[in-house]
Design brief:
The complex is a heterodimer.
Chain A lengths: L19 H15 L1 E2 L12 E2 L3 E2 L6 E7 L3 H7 L4 E4 L2 E3 L4 H10 L3 H4 L3 E6 L5 H13 L4 E5 L1 E2 L8
Parallel strand pairs in A: 2-9, 4-7, 7-8
Antiparallel strand pairs in A: 4-5, 5-6
Chain B lengths: L13 H15 E2 L4 E6 L18 E6 L5 E3 L2 E3 L4 H9 L26 E6 L5 H26 L6 H9 L5 H17 L4 E3 L6
Parallel strand pairs in B: 3-6, 6-7
Antiparallel strand pairs in B: 3-4, 4-5
Helix pairs in contact in B: 2-3, 4-5
Classes of the chains: A alpha/beta, B alpha/beta.
Subcellular location (chain A): Cell membrane
Protein name (chain A): Biopolymer transport protein ExbD
InterPro entries (chain A): ExbD
Chain lengths: ~160, ~200
């Protein structure tokens, strides 16, 4: 009978987008868990060299980052093209590093203080001179544990 | 009158909101590359202390010049041969006191792994990537020897590098750490990492 007759229509039903939010939320949660907030804006070129004998830094370890390299094209007009050291959001001279380290260390809880690690994120084309100065400062500040952040890969491709 | 059902909330814009959040997180966050070569700097020393005397044959000198060229034990060397040369030097066991060494027992090279020191000196103009490559090769020599001893002493254990990574990870439970600690210390004692970095020359 006509009461139960199905409505006949020739055109295809629209694809349901009801699950789209779920998919996007899934992506969102994935990115929220695997990434961290940018803590500082990079003002230097920062391409890490390769190495194989790497150790992962633990997320719970207190890590202070020191960046070094040539200023990016945006900053090179103002700061020149020689190698610079960046901590937090500004360029510092190597002699100021000790103060930054001591300040960071004093803000840590007691049990974390001896696990303090300084991570050096240095561009691969930097000269060793400035790195030596940084290391000398860290030694003075008694921040002896350091980690040269690298990409994982054969180290010999650095020198090609 | 027919019972009217409550109108459904339109969820069509949900996807847009979620996309907005997603894009926000994509822009403000980075995937961290938190891995690298860990080293320890020597503690600051009072300048009056004279360094302990080390015999010349126990020191393996690696120089890197401003053109990123290597001079190892006064001979030019390609970086790909560095690991093998360092390995031979560390594993030499010249005085016969090292029972686990497989080296040449050359009396002109290092006495035993405990006395063997690798000295690395770079120029101020050396590039960082070469420095990292050299460091990597030297550390790889130590790790290779430790891994060899791991196979001999603890054949059922995971490879040395994984042991070390597991020991340093915060999520490893304490009982496993207690188990790993003596093994790692033992392996490190067999081949202690004595890598000294001299101050670069100013020229």
């Amino acid at each position: 009978m006509s009461k139960f007759k199905k409505k006949k229509s020739g055109d295809l039903p629209a694809v349901s987008t009801a699950s789209l939010p779920d998919i996007v939320f899934m992506l969102l949660f994935f990115f929220m868990t695997v990434t961290v907030m940018k803590d500082s804006d990079l003002m230097v070129d920062n391409v890490m060299p390769y190495a194989t004998e790497v150790q992962k830094l633990d997320k719970k370890d207190p890590v202070m980052y020191i960046y070094a390299g040539k200023p990016t094209s945006k900053y090179s007009k103002k700061f020149g093209t020689s190698d610079k050291v960046q901590i937090n959001d500004k360029f510092v001279s190597p002699s100021e590093i000790k103060d930054f380290v001591l300040e960071y260390q004093s803000g840590l809880r007691q049990e974390l203080q001896d696990r303090f690690i300084t991570a050096l994120k240095v561009d691969q084309d930097t000269n060793m001179g400035i790195i030596t100065d940084v290391k000398e400062e860290l030694r003075d500040a008694n921040a002896l544990k350091i980690n040269y952040i690298t990409k994982e890969g054969d180290a010999l491709q650095n020198v090609k | 009158m027919a019972k009217r059902s409550a109108p459904e909330v339109n969820a069509g814009s949900m996807a847009d909101i979620a996309f907005l959040l997603l894009i926000f997180f994509l822009v403000t966050t980075t995937i961290e590359t938190n891995q690298g070569i860990s080293t320890k700097l020597p503690p600051p020393q009072p300048p009056t202390d004279a360094p302990p005397p080390i015999k010349d044959k126990n020191v393996f000198i690696v120089l890197v010049n401003q053109n990123d060229e290597l001079l190892v034990e006064e001979e030019r060397m390609d970086i790909k041969d560095l690991r093998e040369a360092a390995l031979e030097f560390l594993d030499n066991g010249g005085d016969g006191s090292c029972s686990y060494c497989n080296g040449q027992k050359d009396p002109e090279s290092s006495d035993n792994p405990n006395k063997a020191v690798i000295s690395l000196r770079n120029n101020r103009e050396t590039s960082y990537k070469t420095y990292i490559a050299v460091q990597n090769e030297l550390i790889a020599a130590y790790d290779e020897l430790r891994e060899r001893e791991r196979k001999r002493l603890y054949p059922n254990e995971v490879p040395y590098l994984e042991m070390d990574a597991e020991y340093n990870a915060a999520k490893t439970d304490d009982s496993r750490k207690d188990e790993l600690q003596p093994k790692i210390e033992k392996l490190q004692a067999l081949y202690p990492r004595k890598l000294s970095e001299a101050e670069p020359k100013k020229d």
